Amino acid sequence: MNRSEGLVQRRNVLKDSNSDGTLKENYDDDKKNDKNYDDGDSKETRLTLMEEVLLLGLKDKEGYTSFWNDCISSGLRGCILIELGLRGRIELERAGMRRKGLLSRKVIVKSDSPTGDVLLDEALKHMKETDPPETVQSWIEYLSGETWNPMKLKYQLKNVRERLAKNLVEKGVLTTEKQNFLLFDMTTHPLTDNVVKCRLVKKVQEAALRRSITDVAHADKRSLALLMLAHSADVLENAFAPLSDEDYELATRRVRALLDLDFEAESMRPDACEIMWAVFAAFTK
Question: pTM of this prediction?
Fold first, then answer.
């Protein structure tokens, strides 16, 4: 895989303010479920984890993701699961006396109240209607359509990238164009609001460079999830490329430290989001 595809030129980036992602509706209720919500500047465009990961992967001028990236599809499904977990909609079943591993425990719907996001609500509906429940690994595969079981294909979330891109168009971050590629026309979504993209890149960089990020007991869950999901979706390099050589090495070293964590042990900490750690485990097994 050509990891340099679509990367921006390495340079030092000017300081910018951070942004955080939230959904358009049910915001107050979701803040209660996710203690890591940060209101920040109320005028800033708020993005979901799915939208942030897609935006990191999109080429600014071309408006599409790298053709070489075969990880972003499953990465976006992981975003959906963690977003639902942070919002208190789903959780893992109890570990039991014999302490089942993260990847062996089933996903349980804790609350089916609407999130205000069509993709999240669609995934939540599938999980609620599934009996017996499935594991995190299975849901990543089902929602991606990567299953050999024809009975499970009904759970596939279709056109996820296009639907997320349309969300970003509605938020004024992207626009919609048509480009001709030899024998076919393709809908693309070039960047229109560079401030939002720069703010997102800066947030990812600062999260990785922050010493406390490896102290996950006190780290911001959303920043941690964004780093790990961007890595799983193979778009993290797009955020790190503009860093100086010294900061680049430090950031990548911090991410490697996170990947080397004992996810089972971290999930047992008080206030841990077990769904988040289960998704991390699924992508690194």
Answer: 0.84
